[in-house]
């Protein structure tokens, strides 16, 4: 049996580790590996290091520490890290450089984000996010805004990664026109997905709803700016469950102030939460949520299931679905 251990930064991250790898998932793991007792944290690594010379596999979730070169030297047998969460950008590069396999549960985390966004899209097209406050204010249903409905509406998705593709599948039963902006999506892939590949300007100009799922990489920082938001159709909605840094938020706030017909549903911002004096707090057409689109509650166990399935595939010599390569890392959130 391979020698394995749980790693985390410590503190709250240890709580997250126990939530994701609950008793049943730990039991499943313990049946397949020689599991190191306890959790190795960034603070007490040196205390554990003398007993980790034969460690082959690390299991982790949010809070996976970044291993230093000196710490790598203390782990000569390390072959793989199975990460039961999404983004691996902060810790994966040095692992990949040393030939260590990195597997992420980003596909599992994509499921609740896609579900959350689907709900927001359907409600946005019904006018729900304007209707509720206007109905409360006017006290009469005829005075409250109503949307165009979902039949025949146009939804523009920014990004066709794991979340974007999961959302495309969820949207399929509805009679919607789906546009996708993604420089890495080929025309052939777009056709097979049943979507229309468009440019960024076109996505904003045509979308009754524009939903952002772009990765936070240098090329996307500040990519979405004032001209895009100003070009949105009347009564359109902008949804951001991607990353706040892709949006020039000062521009977004300025356009939303000038155009009360637009609505912004922001589950992510930059910084997060917004600064206390940010206009995003006070604009009536902005709805902020506290980064709840991703896995939470019982949903986090799905991430453990994904990496445990991948571990079993790796052990059996079967192909992996969620291994992170240097090329894939360039386009991940």
From TrEMBL:
Record-linked CDD domains? 2-Hacid_dh_8 (cd12167)
Keyword NAD appears in the UniProt entry: yes
Keyword rRNA processing, does the record have it?
Answer: no
What InterPro entries does the record tag this protein with?
D-2-hydroxyacid_DH, D-isomer_DH_NAD-bd, NAD(P)-bd_dom_sf
Source superkingdom: Bacteria
The record's EC number reads 1.1.1.95
Give the molecular function GO annotations. NAD binding; phosphoglycerate dehydrogenase activity
Sorted UniProt keywords:
NAD, Oxidoreductase
Q: Which residues form the D-isomer specific 2-hydroxyacid dehydrogenase NAD-binding domain?
A: 141-293
Please name the Pfam families in this protein's record. Answer: 2-Hacid_dh_C (PF02826)
As for family, the record states: Belongs to the D-isomer specific 2-hydroxyacid dehydrogenase family.
Record's protein name: D-3-phosphoglycerate dehydrogenase
